[in-house]
Specification:
By secondary structure, the protein is an alpha/beta fold. It is built from 14 helices and twelve strands.
Length: 413
């Protein structure tokens, strides 16, 4: 067996299942799961209709590069959402769907396979990532033979990755920098100035930035949509998106996590090599899925409706919890990243046992780090003492869960 498998950490939800094992919550309280970021809103009917109408096309193998229509729809959405067109009286597109876009079966699959395609393990590579983080970043790095380098995102840094904590030597070894905006679990949005600074580092040290932007359509101020890496690249004069790759998904935007549909876009030189890898990887997207996805990417109305539901949940839940917990409205995403000023595992276990509400211990999403190096060395875990609360159930269930959490805290105190 691949010896690198032994370096993988248990997945957060495996650890959560062990934590809850043997507990029996009150029978009279229905379970409310706020531990996993699985969207529960009703998916758009027109997307499901397009999927059903094309099931007859399952009788042929799809191309790894995807349908030209799919790539074009993804490119149009990028340009529309982030304002990527060339200026002038007749704005011209900047995103070439033929060379800059590939379909993927959800961003999780693509984030993992991207690292396997990019890493040169003959040079003691480093993959830098925010901490806390989506655990696929770490697992992909370990299995590719790279060393994870953790950049703490704490209140002290405004929940932005601490680029200053990385030594010049570590940057020289870096081959990929993962960024996530809005962040999971913090909800922090990376501003354009931060992204431009990261781009300058990538240019100086010749690494690729992999921007996980799967929450980008869940911003909480309609007047301030979260910016993206390609947007920052143009602002920095990188019109060809050099060293930039972005990952987008319909799971959060359109509430279709089971469709497993997303796309990867960016630097055509990188995308060309990634396509070669994916041709052997066997990760082509089914044609009915691509056609349903085209309908979703071409429509912005349902995404705005979806976003308003999350905004409503924050509006209703935060006032309920604010007298009992330190809760802040994030800039994006659908998580509350809450400091409980105590043992996050015990809080999670006792909340489940007494109120049948599941949240996720923050320590499960982070790693202990040594200050100033970013490498795992037994230091403090920036997720410890926090819990992640996913506002994915219905508005009514989120309100009920918040009331139960408040009651639990009052009783706990």
């Amino acid at each position: 067996m691949n010896p690198r498998l032994d370096r993988l950490h248990a997945y957060p939800f495996e650890r959560l299942a062990r934590l809850k094992a043997g507990l029996t919550p009150p029978v009279g309280l229905t379970h409310i799961a706020m531990s996993i970021g699985e969207p529960q809103h009703a998916p758009p009917a027109f997307v499901l209709d397009r999927l059903r109408d094309n099931l007859h096309r399952l009788g042929s193998y799809p191309a790894t590069a995807g349908l030209p229509e799919f790539r074009a729809a993804a490119a149009r959405w990028l340009e529309r959402r982030f304002g990527l067109q060339h200026g002038g009286a007749n704005p011209a597109p900047r995103v070439n769907p033929e060379t800059m876009v590939l379909p993927c079966n959800g961003t999780r699959e693509a984030l993992f396979s991207f690292v396997q395609a990019i890493i040169d393990d003959s040079t003691a590579p480093v993959v830098a990532m925010p901490n806390p983080f989506y655990q696929i970043y770490e697992g992909a790095a370990l299995l590719a033979g790279a060393e994870p380098l953790f950049l703490n995102t704490t209140a002290a840094t405004g929940y932005l990755p601490d680029l200053d904590a990385v030594s010049e030597q570590a940057w020289r070894r870096c081959q990929i920098l993962f960024l996530c905006s809005p962040g999971n679990p913090t909800g922090a949005v990376l501003p354009v100035d931060f992204l431009r600074r990261a781009l300058a580092l990538a240019e100086r040290h010749d690494f690729v930035i992999a921007a996980d932007e799967c929450y980008t359509e869940i911003y909480l101020d309609e007047d301030s949509p979260s910016p993206g890496l390609l947007q920052a690249a143009i602002a920095a004069g990188h019109g060809g998106f050099e060293r930039c790759v972005v990952f987008h998904s319909l799971s959060k935007r359109s509430s279709v996590p089971g469709l497993r549909s997303g796309f990867v876009a960016g630097d055509p030189k990188v995308m060309s090599r990634f396509l070669l890898y994916r041709t052997y990887h066997g990760s082509a997207m089914a044609v009915p899925t691509q056609l349903a996805s085209i309908a979703a990417w071409d429509d912005d109305v349902h995404a705005a409706t979806n976003r308003r539901l999350y905004q409503e949940k924050f509006d209703k839940v935060i006032p309920i919890l604010s007298g009992s917990l330190d809760v802040e409205r994030p800039s994006g995403g659908f998580y509350l990243w809450t400091d409980i000023h105590g043992d996050d595992e015990r809080f999670t276990r006792d909340l489940f046992a007494k109120q049948n509400v599941a949240v996720l211990p923050g320590s499960y999403l982070g790693r202990g780090t040594a200050t100033g190096t970013g490498t795992e060395a037994g230091g403090s875990n920036p997720g410890a003492g926090r819990v992640r609360i996913s506002l994915v159930p219905s508005v009514g269930q989120c309100i009920e869960a918040a009331e139960r959490i408040r009651e639990f805290i009052r009783g706990h105190r």
